[in-house]
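Sample A.
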Amino acid sequence: MSAPLKLRNVGPKSAAWLRQVGLRTLDDLAAAGPVEAFMRVKRAGFKPSLNLLYALEGALCDCHWQEVPEARRAQLVAEAEAAIAQLPAPRGRPAAGPVTTTHHQEEDAAPSLGFFDEPDND
C-alpha cells in the first residue's frame, strides 16, 4: 500500500486539495502526472498557481520546485495552458488569457528574506 500523500514541496493546503480530488498517495500522483493533478485541482474550483504545478513536478522528481529546469517548466506550462483552453468558459466572464511567467532582475537588490523561496501552497 502506498504512503499517505506527504511530499516534498507540497504544503498542507495543497495536500488537502489533492486529497479532495482523489489523489491520496504518491502512486496516485505519479499515475496522474503533474499536469493532470494540477488540472483536477483547477477543475474542482480551487485556484492553484503555477507554483503548484512546479511543486508537483519537483515532488515526483524528488527535487526542490525551484530546481525544475526551465525547459521542463515551459513544457508543463504549455501543457497546462492547452488543458485550460479546453475548459468551458465561465458564464458571464470572458475566458482568461494565457498564463505567463515573468522574471525580474534587480541590480544591487537587497538580500532575499526567503518569503518567495517556497511555493505559497499553505
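Sample B.
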Amino acid sequence: MFADGVAPQVLNETLRIGTVQLCNADYAVLASESTKGPLWSAEDLTEENLEIADRTRRQGSFYPDERLPVSIRAALEDYRSSGYDRGHMTPSGDEPGVQAQRQSFLLSNIVPQTAELNRGPWEGVESAVRGWARQEGEIFVVTGPGYDPDQTRTIGAGRIPVPAVTWKAIYDPAANGMGAYVCLNTRRPTWRVLKTPWF
C-alpha cells in the first residue's frame, strides 16, 4: 500500500503519541487518539483495482472501528446532527470489491467535512485521481486532514476535531512525479494544487 514499502511519516512528535496503524484489504490508516480519526490514509491505486471497483455497486454504512480502544474510536453519534458530512479519506469508489468497499466506511477512515466540500470539490479531486490511476496504471495516494491549532471546533460527545483542510498527495512511480491537492474545509471551499511538472 506504500511506495517502496515505506509508510507515511508523521513528523510532529506530539501527533505521533497515541496513534495506531491499521491495515485493511486495500488501504491503511494511522488512527489518532487526539483526532479519533485518521492522520493519514494510504492506498496503492491501480487501474486493475479500479476496474473491479467500477463493477462493484456502491454500498455500505458507516460504522465504528472496533479494533481501536474506545479512547481512540469515533462513534456514529458524534456525527449525528453535527452539520458535517462523514468524509472519506480513502474513497469507497477506489475500493475493489464488497469487503474492501465496506472497510472504507470505517470511522477510522473518516473526518468531518462540510457538505459543500465533500459533495463538491472533494468529489472532483477523488474522480481526477482515479483518472490519473487509469492513465498511469498505478499511483500511490496518501490522504489526510490538516488542523489549525487556533481552531477549536469539535463535534459530538467524543469532541471530534474539525479539520481546517483535507489534502491528497499522489506519487507516480513510473514517471517519478508527485503532486498534491489541498482543500479548505469550509462552507465556501477552495482548493489548490501543489505540483511538479508531471501534474
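B remarks: The chain has one domain: 3-195. Residues 130 and 189 are 21 Å apart (CA to CA).
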